[in-house]
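Key idea: predict the complex, not the pieces.
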Amino acid sequence: MTSPSSSSSSSPSSSPSSGAATPLDRYEVVIGLEVHAQLSTRSKIFSGSSAAFGAEPNAATDPVCLGLPGTLPVLNAAAVLCAVKLGLAVGSHIRESCRFTRKHYFYPDLPKGFQISQFDEPICEGGTIRFRVRGEPRTVRLVRIHLEEDAGKNLHAAAGASFVDYNRAGVPLCEIVSEPDVRSAEEAAEYMRALRTLVRYLGICDGNMEEGSMRCDANVSLRLRGAERLGTKAEIKNMNSFKNVRDAIEHEVRRQAALLDRGERVIQETRLWDAARGLSVAMRSKEHAHDYRYFP
Amino acid sequence: MGVGSDAASAVRGASIATLADGVRAGRWKARDLTEAYLDRVARLDGALGTYLLVNGAGARRRADEIDRARSEGRDPGPLAGVPIALKDIFVTEGIETTCASKILRGFVPPYESTTSRRLAEAGTVMLGKLNMDEFAMGSSTENSARGTVKNPWSLAHVPGGSSGGSAAAVAASLCAGALGTDTGGSIRQPAALCGVVGMKPTYGRVSRHGVIAFASSLDHPGPFGRTVDDVATLMEIIAGPDPLDSTSIPTPIGQYRAAVKAGVSGMRVGVPAEYFGAGMDAEVEGAVRAAIAEVERAGATVVPVSLPHTRYAIATYYLICTAEASSNLARYDGVRFGYRTPEARSLEELYTRSRGEGFGWEPKRRIMLGTYVLRAGYYEAYYGKALKARRLLADDFAAAFSRCDALLTPTSPIPAFRFGEKTSDPLQMYLADVMTVAANLAGIPALSQCCGFTRAGLPIGLQVMGPPLGEEAVFRVAGAYEARTEWHRRLPEDHPGPSASPPEARPLRPSGGVA
Amino acid sequence: MSRIRPEEVREIAVLARLALDDGEIARMTQDLDAILGYVAALGELDTTATLPMTHAVPFDCPLRADEVTVALPVDVALANAPQREASFFRVPRIVPGPGAASGLPAGMEEG
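Result:
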């Protein structure tokens, strides 16, 4: 389900049509980043099986992370400590009391049919990430940092079946949500580098994007330079390296600019980055699919 | 392998205290008691349907271990040799646990619930798993996907629910004591309808680890027994902090058995006006008022109180419990355990058909209602509103307990009803919980004990409620009342049934399929 | 006056992943309508000054030490699997993206 505009600009290195100004002359790029950092605790966030990477499939599980009937979560102190360290390092307000929420959806890698996350009372609020882009200092403000549990992994075979491994289910995650302060693909990549350095320095996460211990989703929108209102954003997922973050966002900027130039609207949707083909693919999701029915 | 005739005749109507003392004194072997109960189950449960699964081999093995330990001078625990049974909502390692639902048929847990483990460590012998309303949703055990349970006092009448199997099994002496769960009255109401004692502790006083969840903020595991002292005895074993349950209360438990004997002089008991009146059976009201008078004669001062928000309790309960149930039952999806539909052509069909075919109507209805009230846009109007109403109900109790130490009410406005009488209209069945749900919403301890019988011979229940962590006050009142009455000594007739006895536990292997 | 229509009941059945045939949708609509009518009585309560109560008995969330305390053998983890293949739970093919009625959560898809 490739949108026509993305296939026409499929190669990241193709130059815009000759004679025309680049999109960035007309449009300001507004990017917000959501990063999931897998915390390097020994055990899982709500149960006592190992959180280490690389075990044989389904060899690092327990009744709680499998979501077996009658099991109950018990919070890992080290996960809380990691989130607090991160919050202190970036100058967040650490809430005196925070709350876990259930986020409901059905997917095979989600054993309980809900993810334990934090919705309206996250552990950290605010904060800033400071870094440099080609020597120039930049500041990106954070909205929040919260704790949640990771899901398992689905592997897809050709023969009409998928296979599920729950080793990763229940591994603690910090979700770090930025304000839409990032202004270019290059800046986004540098932000990610800065975050990686930070979490490694704090010893809370090994920051390995290729292995999935640090993941990035980008919300990208354009607006005419000088405009105040934000444009419609699209969410880009599946960027598993700094290069992919940069390439995918650059691609998205060109895609949206082309739409807007033609007088068309950007659709609010989620798109998956396909690094091999250098383009993004829209996920079609039904309107009610995102009713997570949060409750405490 | 004969059953010692002394044990056989002793077990009918025997209390846990009598049995435990007898084993300790060497009067009975644990094996003899186990055989006596298993014999009764084999002969009588065909007519009653209380057991879903009998743990014959396991129980005999355990009883033999206990006898061996005693003969070697070791102490097998304070309740050594006492046979008990568990509502099939308690996860038992290596033994099928189904919640009386098709969707959990064949589920063999790899771990044990804290509560059943504590009972086992105290030396009890686990006879089997007891029938219930599916996923604890119901007030008559008519919602079991695995057959109904009959009230031992009258086979045409329901035993109550959702712990109907537990209440009936204790009433019929098919076990000496049992565990159940109470989310909206599911221990107290069947206890009342079956003429036994049942207690819902303070929320968090007894661990929920290994109790299959229906509504997480309302579920309370608790004991059934023949006498108040038996229930206090079981409470002393099962209650207490558990690091595996984050909502378990961290403070040590009280002296419950001592409270049973402590009497009520100096205590004030409140009688809330809202728990009497229209809709109540006249015989129930008469028996309960007589019981209150008896408690007063025992030395308590009776104080009229008001719980003004009582009439909103059912609505509040059904919004909160269904929202929580829709969440807790989301894990039953045919992926990792339990029932999977045989022909799923897609992942979507795997979910919708497994759940559609595996759940009975009542769980589906509650899941639907719960999903609806948690929808974005409806949350505040329904669920959010109910959470506020919950606080108002809890505040009512707090205000009442500033003026009294315990409350006395009927447990159920009516005695046991007939099968099919309340199944056509959902609200009719829900309204049967009107006297019990508020205690779940407020998390306060509450107990039901027998206070009389109708002219038709059906038991009537008296409910004693206390403030949070006020189990001792509840036991004082209940113990004093029981000491002055004989209701707890009445036994239902034995009903020899069809020769088919309940199914034996399978050998200790799960029945998971292989691709 | 009905509080819920069959179309909405169908939507909820999809959200809740429950297969209900037409007869069941009709019956469920009736049941839910009756119950919603009953619980509407809560609207009589003035709760403007009332805080919601999610747990009856307040508690501080206890923390546990970060130690590995359990590792189920693979066969035990898979023991109740309706379908397994090697060390995995087996399900019908998950189609990521288009057609998936469940939205993907952030960063969760593996290719």
